[in-house]
């Protein structure tokens, strides 16, 4: 009897495996005009005063031999403009709740120093401050997203920062701004009220923070009623749904533009594993953590629906990405890690989740932009490279501000060591000029997956495609081989009378464009 059961078990397992490898997955795409717009801010970034993000990353100073504009590297400006970076969050992260913005204005030699208590205990000379950041955002064409200090700052301090950056009339703060060389206000729209208030931002309870939020938010006026002034609450740590519930219940909706959520794909906080030298087991676990994002945004959104059924308040996933052990030989407090194809498929799958939840997720910030965690750009003195994650963000920027086309399908499975994950993810959109874009990811480390998409309803006929993949999952772009992983034309699909048949290679990201 035992033998029969075992054979039946083996048969079932083999059947499931062959399903994953041979079956064609049918993806249906709804051509609808009433679906939400994919807010371009989903493709946002994050730059903290951490490690070599600002100093030695973005900012080299205007006396550097590295070509720069007011101290900001020209190669980074060019790369981020090509990415169509929509917004940039600054100055933290944990750093934000230790940052006093008045330390970073006025003549640089006179600025006080502080110790960066969270990140390596290094001395911060405040040479990169409000003017440097906001002028840089203007160069990038990106909306600035300022994180205000609630943990160790005051209500007055944050109210003053808003007046300094946003008020054009006469006032103590706008006069000070003019004295420091900037006549016109920058009109900053996105304001974070603290960061990780449950942790480094002050170890507050949700109830206590909700009260603090109401107080800080009250004194932050949209000085000139320009509209689009968005106050964002420090959100939950991953799956802390109670945090979201308490904020939604206790903060009047007219004071709340967005609620943050932070989620990092970490295998084990005590032993995160190497960024490059990883096993399939570690890969599978990283992807499992990353794909939790689907459940997180679904459940946080469901909590918000109870208080805000019209979805006026957005989810802002203002920190997301992979977090590994720092690269050997680098400062543990600087969070420098390399970026392989694992990071590319992680980014592609996560962005598909955000696109598909565009009704509620209206901003997200990859952590972090330069030289920290899942960076899109790495620098080494005068050298700069773009990572596989950079190319995913670039391939996907076609979805920015396009109308979502809802997708529906049952994903084949990626089997590893008795566990499974959905192997394929997809999202689609139609832009203002009528172009249709479909992004597909196969996370399976060994098996290709076949999909079929009915395109008859989509109003487009001719397709081209781009793929990002590599010969090895662990491959990455180094300073010696900076172009090992770059997007190339993809021909692995056929358009058979209105049906696109596509074979997605293992660990790859594809974006199709239909005209
Ligand atoms: O991104 C690194 C850190 O992660 C941020 O400072 C903090 O907000 C989060 O815990």
TrEMBL record:
Its EC number is 3.2.1.55. Residues 318-508 form the Alpha-L-arabinofuranosidase C-terminal domain. SUPFAM superfamilies: (Trans)glycosidases (SSF51445), Glycosyl hydrolase domain (SSF51011). It is an enzyme of class 3 (hydrolase). InterPro entries: Alpha-L-AF_C, ASD1_cat, GH, Glyco_hydro_b. Residues 1-20 form the signal peptide. Keywords: Carbohydrate metabolism, Glycosidase, Hydrolase, Signal. It comes from the Bacteria. It catalyses: Hydrolysis of terminal non-reducing alpha-L-arabinofuranoside residues in alpha-L-arabinosides. Belongs to the glycosyl hydrolase 51 family. Homohexamer; trimer of dimers. This is non-reducing end alpha-L-arabinofuranosidase. It comes from Flavobacterium psychroterrae.
